[in-house]
Design a protein that fits this description.
This protein has one domain: Homocysteine-binding-like domain (TIM Barrel, Alpha-Beta Barrel). The protein has 12 helices and 10 strands. It has helices at residues 3-19, 29-34, 46-49, 51-64, 78-83, 90-109, 137-152, 167-180, 203-212, 225-239, 266-278, 292-304; strands spanning 22-23, 68-70, 117-122, 158-164, 185-189, 217-222, 244-248, 254-256, 259-261, 283-284. α6 (90-109) runs parallel beside α7 (137-152). The structure holds zinc ion (ZN). Zinc ion (ZN) is lined by residues 163, 222, 249, 287-288. Residues 163, 222, 249, 287-288 line the site of zinc ion (ZN).
Length: 306
């Protein structure tokens, strides 16, 4: 793509962001389990071995009315794929994920003329970084650089760094995006009832550091459900007018007959959606345990709320 087109492409997402509340899709992992993903299996390898399942999940979220779909690349960084012995397939897995998202959009847009965007999902390495652990920051940077290079070679509209707990790690991922692409980037951390991440990071610190490091938007995702994240993003909004994202999980899951059950219903998500809109949250979506039904409820509330 030539440079001018790239700039136009970039602003299409950022322009839309300034105009309306955008909805992002719901869980990928939870949905993949319904397509046979087993515990201990690499979810991102589904892009290669079961692409139809991934595309169908994207389509079900598009039909629910989402504006943005997230690629199936949450764990497709160098260090996580290495654990599965799949690091040599990193580029293939990441590039294929965007192709699947784009293919779902292309089919959907044959009958629905609406602007739709693809966000490249990047999650934590799952490693404990120095000084708490032994994994070196340079190794982490390299692992993210590989993933960003692969995603940046596609037509992805922006990057979402999500579900981070460690401020040092998300800063490294953000640096990898800034240094290896000119894609817009949102950076989101995961908070629990203490309104901090498990590394003790507050919403205020998150805002201060991640905007300083060049994020286009900051957010809160996963964590402990819509109510906790409401309190988190309210604190964030209290100190910034910049773009914010919220993507709660459907509450904390409990086990019932050996199955994980997420307590937050689509109705509950819709109620919180109204509160998020009142705070001026720019992107609202769902994390673990949310389904197309949750997203449909969010979309309906966004449409009804001026
Ligand atoms: Zn989640």
């Amino acid at each position: 793509m030539i440079e001018e087109e790239k700039k136009g492409f970039k602003s299409a997402f950022l322009d839309q962001l300034g105009q309306k509340t955008m909805v992002m899709d719901g869980a990928m992992g939870t949905m993949l389990q319904q397509y046979g993903l087993k515990a201990g299996e690499c979810p991102e390898m589904f892009n290669i071995i079961n692409p139809d399942a991934v595309k169908e999940i994207h389509t079900s979220y598009l039909e629910a009315g989402t504006d943005i779909i997230l690629t199936n690349t949450f764990g497709a960084n160098g260090l996580k794929l290495q654990k599965y012995g799949l690091r040599d397939r990193l580029s293939e897995i990441n590039i294929k994920s965007v192709e699947l998202a784009e293919a779902a959009i292309e089919d959907f847009q044959k009958i629905n003329i609406v602007p739709l965007f693809v966000a490249g999902s990047i999650g934590p390495t799952g490693e404990i970084l120095e000084p708490y652990g032994t994994v070196k920051k340079e190794e982490v940077l390299k692992a993210y650089r590989e993933q960003v290079n692969a995603l940046a070679s596609t037509e992805v509209d922006f990057i979402l760094l999500e579900t981070f707990y460690n401020l040092d790690e998300i800063k490294i991922a953000l640096k990898a995006v800034k240094e290896n692409s000119d894609l817009p980037v949102f950076a989101s951390m995961s908070f629990d009832e203490s309104l901090r991440t498990i590394y003790g990071i507050t919403p205020e610190k998150t805002i201060e550091v991640l905007f300083q490091e060049g994020a286009d938007g900051v957010g809160a995702n996963c964590g402990s459900g819509p109510d906790v994240l409401y309190k988190v993003v309210a604190k964030m909004r209290g100190i910034t007018d910049a773009p914010l994202l919220v993507k709660p999980n459907a509450g904390i899951p409990y086990l019932e007959n050996n199955k994980e059950v997420y307590p937050a219903t689509p109705q509950e998500m819709a109620e919180y959606t109204e509160k998020y809109i009142q705070l001026g949250i720019n992107i609202i979506g769902g994390c673990c345990g949310t389904t197309p039904e949750h997203i449909r409820a969010i979309v309906q509330k966004v449409k009804k709320t001026p």
